[in-house]
Amino acid sequence: MVLHTYTSSVSIKDLRFSWAPDSKDLLHIRDWHIGTGKRVFLYGPSGSGKTTLLNLICGIARPRAGEISVAGTRLTTLSASQRDRFRAQFIGVIFQQFNLVPYLSVADNIRLASAFTGQHQGADERATMLIEQLGLRGVQNNKASRISVGQQQRVAIARALLNAPPLIIADEPTSALDAAARDTFMSALLECSAEVGSTVLVVSHDHSLATYFDDSVDLRTLNLALGFNNGESSASVL
Length: 238
Ligand SMILES: Nc1ncnc2c1ncn2[C@@H]1O[C@H](COP(=O)(O)OP(=O)(O)OP(=O)(O)O)[C@@H](O)[C@H]1O
Known about the structure:
Residues 10-238 form the ABC transporter domain. InterPro entries: AAA+_ATPase, ABC_transporter-like_ATP-bd, ABC_transporter-like_CS, ABC_transpr_LolD-like, MacB-like_ATP-bd, P-loop_NTPase. This is ABC transporter, ATP-binding protein. One of its GO terms (molecular function) is transmembrane transporter activity. By secondary structure, this protein is an alpha/beta fold. It has a domain at 36-59 and 82-214: Rossmann fold, CATH 3.40.50.300. 32% of the residues lie in helices and 23% in strands. It has 7 helices and 10 strands. The strands form 2 sheets. The chain has a 5-stranded mixed sheet with strand order 5-4-1-2-10, with helices on one face. Strands 6-7-8-3-9 form a 5-stranded parallel sheet, sandwiched between helices. Strand 7, helix 6 and strand 8 (199-203) form a beta-alpha-beta unit. Helix 3 (106-115) packs across helix 4 (123-133) and helix 5 (149-161) packs parallel to helix 6. The protein starts with 7 loop residues before the first strand and ends with a strand.
């Protein structure tokens, strides 16, 4: 089992992001830290920049200024291809629509996460363990297009956890699910990620999810660009 020992899983300093060089900042975050193994729920109104912030933390987008570190690595010092490799290895991403490859089997969708890192050692054993743990054994050879939404969400969890990443990020992962499926999803996600000590950052409009988390953060209180606070955008979940 992997246990992550970084003090801070996500660390943001003086971050500024705008969509165009001459447009006003969408995000300005002075100081935000998420401690290793913490579960954080991030919320805020539509259009406030939640997905953009997740993309910055994943290294998909680049800030105009400032520092973003994930598990001790400063993403801002990496090239685009280095950031892609870093993300494949160190960040498990769960998207709203789960983004499974429909013509691949459940097992191959899960193993895909190791194909992107080039580190295959132990991947098959770990995939088998996650398939078992998430109750997917009966459908492991089915194509992803031939499984239920509830099963797809569990495949997405398994794929995100295959490399035992220090950070799991999920953007509106329960928006397509009913209340019972949502609870199953959250329990499975948090249980499996706790086993490897992964930090979990989830964005959702659904406030009822907040009870699952160590901390809930309103992006409006972090983001100086919105002018909702008094120049204080410091927050830590340590
Ligand atoms: N590729 C893009 N180019 C320019 N502007 C964009 C782009 N993507 C998003 N935006 C704008 O950035 C702002 C923040 O978008 P973002 O998707 O981060 O918000 P959000 O808080 O996640 O919204 P929602 O809750 O509706 O998903 C919005 O005003 C959006 O229109």
